[in-house]
Fold this protein.
Amino acid sequence: MQHRRWPSRVWTVRHGESSANIALRDAIASGLDQVRVIGRDADVPLSAVGEEQARAAGRWFRTLSLTSRPERVLCSPFRRTRRTAELIVAEANLDVHIQSDERLREKDLGSLEKLTRQGLQHRDPMQSDLHRELGKFYYRPPGGESWCDVIGRLRNLLYQFVLHEDDRPVLFVCHQAVITCMRLIFEHLDEERVLQIDREDAASNCAISEYAVADDGGRPRMRLVHWNLDPTSDVGKA
């Protein structure tokens, strides 16, 4: 692999707050088995707060020098991520075409879609036991994906950049689990560490994370510059 074939800089941004995020919080607070969301997960829109979060992220990118901004933007095809990307690009005044890629889509929960943890225990105790036995990393819900499945499709996407793309900086707008799985790939993390990040410091809505290419004995590697940076703040977590 040639150094020049890695993107010189990579940013990941989780979508802004969605109506499903609000519904999930309400369901957990009310002790409900099911999240009250109508329609497909792919069609869930941003909330009003989510739209403003996306604009704030765009303003953060606008503060970067003209030579340090994203030159490509890829997003999940889901409505909330596409809208987040559009608002970022508009607010940052980026002259880029937004490209949707299904490999950046949300982790598929299959038949467990819209169930809270309590709902899984009540409605499908066998799957609840299997989830507990296998662990979050390897458990695949019926008709859905494990974290390993997500990592597999992300490796396919990222290796495409290594083999076929140039080194222009790229922004990925996607989902919480997807962003955490990217950390595993870029930083060569193991199951324990990536699940610790998911428990303790998961990507917030519209949080910005950033990687830069570094030289490691003549071989390129992705160096974490910021993690979970609040676009309304000047401080990120390295």
Notes: The chain has one domain: 3-229. Confidence is low (pLDDT under 50) at residues 234-238.
